[in-house]
Amino acid sequence: MNIHEYQGKALLKSFGAPVAEGVPVFKASEAEAAAQALPGPLYVVKSQIHAGGRGKGKFKELGADAKGGVRLAKSVAEVVANANEMLGHTLVTKQTGPAGKQVNRLYIEDGADIERELYLSILVDRSVGRIAFVVSTEGGMDIEGVAHDTPEKIITVAIDPEKGVTAEDVKALNDALKLDGDAARDGGTLFPILYKAFVEKDMSLLEVNPLIVMKDGHLRVLDAKVSFDNNALFRHPDVLELRDTSEEDEKEIEASKYDLAYVALDGNIGCMVNGAGLAMATMDIIKLYGAEPANFLDVGGGASKEKVTAAFKIITRDPAVKGILINIFGGIMKCDIIAEGVIAAVKEVGLKVPLVVRLEGTNAELGKKIINDSGLNVVSADDLDDAAKKIVAAVKG
Ligand code: ADP
Ligand code: MG
């Protein structure tokens, strides 16, 4: 689960991290009071969407020379003018995809005097089985470019879970970020604070880009992207309250109600598979034969007929889906349950696109019989390769 920048900053502030003063705004009429509550004379009006790259983003409905999704303002009046222009409009960034995201919230923040922009993130580094800091002196708006062109400028410091952030870790991070004086002392308090927040709140990613050194020599968290481990949300009701479902894919919200592992993608072949590994392989083989999957979907091990029905409905609801591939290797999951779920769903919502089904394993014969007897227009496949070829051919017409 992701949260907005202003929520992430409030959370980090509660752990003691240095963030600027700011006020979230939901309606343009709130912008004036928000700006007046800040010291000035420099303000920043920041679009709150669950995607990065806002500064370099473009508003769809505004002209090509309109400013981006993060704007400096030099007076309360300028804050208000920008808020009026930004709210309700669609911001397209490198991370939103071409459809963009509607800006429904703004964050009006105190402007900082920036000396340097650094990059800092904390993540779970699976290669070493530890939480790690990833830092670079080249922070700001193009860290992807830095990673691509000069990867040596990105430094990883893994943290020993028994010890937490040690003095050596602080030194390594300060050196990597070329911090000294007040900034290095700030680092000594900030790095352990961020690590503590990450661990205590079960985050999966904490990205501060940029972390800035201000003209006065102190550090400040200027942007915050926070993602949480969904599997641990049950123990963080305070975090769950920050959820903004308007930022999430409707189909993914529906899937989460049924405890389905579903991720919407850009292709046109809907996939219903059991097991994450088989789901990945199914997506790969669709690509191998020249098409693109519309989703990742793992119905899980012991799925009920209701769950399968819900999954099928979620797939067919996506207007981009031009064909569906069901690939089940029945183990704990029985093929006849899948067949019954699919038929129940088709009875409710109809079937307007080609459907290829590959059933193998427990009760495969029974499952095939149920589908054949149903009178549904289903193409059956012998194996994964055959199934992928058939659905790609059907979709390409
Ligand atoms: P994004 O990463 O989505 O583009 P950021 O919050 O990182 O959004 O903002 C983009 C840039 O805007 C920053 O790199 C920084 O240069 C500038 N900026 C953001 N917030 C402030 C602020 N409070 N004061 C001064 N400049 C800011
Ligand atoms: Mg940023």
From TrEMBL:
A GO-annotated cellular component: succinate-CoA ligase complex
Reaction catalysed by this enzyme: (S)-malate + ATP + CoA = (S)-malyl-CoA + ADP + phosphate; succinate + ATP + CoA = succinyl-CoA + ADP + phosphate; GTP + succinate + CoA = succinyl-CoA + GDP + phosphate
Alphabetized HAMAP family for the sequence: Succ_CoA_beta (MF_00558)
Protein name (record): Succinate--CoA ligase [ADP-forming] subunit beta
Pfam families registered for this protein in UniProt: ATP-grasp_2 (PF08442), Ligase_CoA (PF00549)
Positions annotated to bind Mg(2+): 209, 223
Pathway: One-carbon metabolism; formaldehyde assimilation via serine pathway; Carbohydrate metabolism; tricarboxylic acid cycle; succinate from succinyl-CoA (ligase route): step 1/1
Binding site for substrate: 274, 331-333
Gene transcribed to yield this protein: sucC
GO biological process, one term: succinyl-CoA metabolic process
Organism superkingdom: Bacteria
